[in-house]
Amino acid sequence: MFELSQDHEDFRRLVREFAEGEIAPHVQEWDRESRFPVHLVPAMGELGLFGLEAPEEFGGAGMEGQGFSYLCVAIEELGRVDQAMGITLEAGVGLGINPIQTYGSKEQKERWLPDLVAGRTLAGFGLTEPEAGSDAGATRTRAVLQDGEWVVDGAKAFITNSGTDITSVVTVTARTGELEDGRPEISAIIVPSGTEGFVVEPAYRKLGWHISDTHGLTFEGARVPEANLLGERGQGFKQFLKTLDDGRIAIAALAVGCIQRMLEETTRYSQERLAFGRPIAVNQGVSFQISDIAVMAEASRALVYKAAWLKEQQHAGKRSVAEVKQAAAIAKLYATEAAVSSTRIATQVFGGNGFMEEYPVARFYRDAKILEIGEGTSEVQRMLIARGLGLPA
């Protein structure tokens, strides 16, 4: 059965020290200014956070298939201090590195992975479009093969890590033809930053995740070599769905970090804040709500690390893809909805102070909502769970 080892806990302490020392003192300022601290990415690379599942030949830890639970620990601990920095790591690995590592050619891996794994560069994952979110199969971006080059036209929306000073590449899905049954043939294509016709739109003004880098992307006759096709032609949609299965577990780990922080903040504040001459923690109306957050933290953590363990077991040939998909959807659904609930409760416990930006619960309250939306909405997770149960979804 799954259980985090002492090595996991030692690694947790390492990441927590980094997050509390390098992120926590500055996070309020960065959030207020919507500033992405690009200098932290190489520092995270030096800790090995981007290479936990990458092969040693590309600078990784060489724990292919067995480092995922460590990645979840790192995302949880970064997310405990700031959700935006947690998503920077999650997207950098799950959406940036993993598609190239899993489906890339030898040449593609050698070109892109060493810098990505080291944290010298970041990569984006271009799936969502202005009119194709949950219905990712409705992709309108097109890529036509002309004279040995893919000519890409279209637009992508809400793409993380896509416009930083160190973003090196974005992998995008595009229609490359039509299948015999009339459905679109969707392929994945690597588009390097700086490609003529590839435009990074201004950063979004977001409700939360102010520190995270998020842009819309436009492609107008962007030309890349035919060799930039990632994996097999026509398999891009399947590749990205598999990528999202893994990403859902990682997003759930980010939610665990949020819930844990709310538990710590409310426990401390309820014992310090006096009302009617005594700490508000003595009131059952407060203590019961904090107890609910504790249950959410324990349950979410158990679901996340069970799913991570199953993924590692699947890589070893001991569990099925269906088991992992179901566990990922369950973890993502419960943990992200619990994260939103925990921030709402925490804001209520803090009262008027919870509405003030100088208290972290306000930032976490803003940041939490996107967890129920990104990498598959709660509705999509329920649909997947129903399908896994054999129900008509």
Description of the structure:
By secondary structure, the protein is α+β, with helices and mostly antiparallel strands. The protein folds into three domains: 6-122, Orthogonal Bundle (Butyryl-Coa Dehydrogenase, subunit A, domain 1); 125-233, Butyryl-CoA Dehydrogenase, subunit A, domain 2 (Beta Barrel); 237-388, Butyryl-CoA Dehydrogenase, subunit A, domain 3, CATH 1.20.140.10. It has eleven helices and ten strands. The protein has helices at 6-23, 27-33, 40-46, 68-81, 83-103, 106-118, 236-272, 284-315, 321-350, 360-368, 378-388, and strands at 122-126, 142-146, 149-160, 167-178, 184-192, 198-203, 214-225, 229-230, 274-275, 278-279. The strands form three sheets. A four-stranded mixed β-sheet has the order 1-4-5-8, with helices on one face. Helix 1 (6-23) runs parallel beside helix 4 (68-81). The longest helix is centred in the middle third of the chain and has 37 residues, at 236-272. It is globular, with a radius of gyration of 21 Å. The mean pLDDT is 96.
Brief sketch in words of this structure:
By secondary structure, this protein is an alpha+beta fold.
